[in-house]
Amino acid sequence: MTYCVGLMLEAGIVLLSDTRTNAGVDNISTYRKMFVFEDPGERVIAIMTAGSLSVTQTAMARLRDAAALPDGPSIMTADTMLGVAEMIGTTLGEVAADVSRKMGAQGQNAQASLIVAGQRKGGEMRMFLIYPEGNFIEATSDTPYLQIGEHKYGKPILDRVVTSRTSLADAQKAVLLSMDSTLRSNLSVGMPLDLAVIEAGSQRVGLQRRIEADDEAFHAMSTAWSAALRDAFAEIAL
Question: For residue 31, is it within any domain?
Answer without folding.
Answer: yes
